[in-house]
Design goal:
Elements: H1 2-8, H2 10-13, E1 19-22, H3 26-29, H4 31-40, E2 43-46, H5 56-69, H6 77-90, H7 95-112
Parallel strand pairs: 1-2
Helix pairs in contact: 5-7
C-alpha cells in the first residue's frame, strides 16, 4: 500500500510518514490491524464520528451519486453497472480533487463548532 501511495500521490508519501484516513470499522480496529499500522509507523487521520458530511467518500461522491440516481429504475445488474459507469464518465474534470481539497475547511468548521451541526 505504501509503495502504491508513493507512486500515485508522492506529496502524501514524501513525508516522515504517509497519512492514512482511518475510520472505526471493526476490521480497522482489530488488534492485528492496529499492530500492523503501528509497525508501519503510519500517521492516522481519524474519520469524524457520526459525520457522513465530513467523510471524503460520503460528503461529495455519494451525495452526487444519489442525485444522479433519483428517479432511475433498474431491471438488471447490468443496468445498474451501466448507470454507475455513466455517472463516473459524466463527472467534470476536478470533480474529485476539488471536493477533497475543500474537506479540511469543513473539518476545521466542525472543530470550531465543537462538533455541533453547522450549515455549509
Amino acid at each position: 500500500m505504501v509503495q502504491k501511495l508513493k507512486e500515485k500521490q508522492p506529496r502524501l508519501a514524501n513525508r516522515l510518514t504517509p497519512i492514512l484516513l482511518h475510520d472505526n470499522a471493526r476490521p480497522h480496529t482489530a488488534q492485528m490491524t492496529v499492530a500492523k499500522l503501528q509497525e508501519l509507523e503510519l500517521e492516522l487521520l481519524h474519520h469524524p464520528s457520526y459525520s457522513p458530511d465530513l467523510a471524503p467518500t460520503d460528503y461529495h461522491f455519494f451525495r452526487n451519486l444519489d442525485n444522479f440516481l433519483i428517479g432511475k429504475k433498474f431491471n438488471s445488474d447490468n443496468a445498474v453497472k451501466l448507470a454507475f459507469q455513466e455517472f463516473i464518465d459524466s463527472r467534470p474534470p476536478g470533480f474529485y480533487t476539488t471536493s477533497l481539497n475543500n474537506l479540511p475547511l469543513k473539518w476545521q468548521k466542525c472543530i470550531d463548532n465543537m462538533g455541533a451541526y453547522f450549515d455549509e
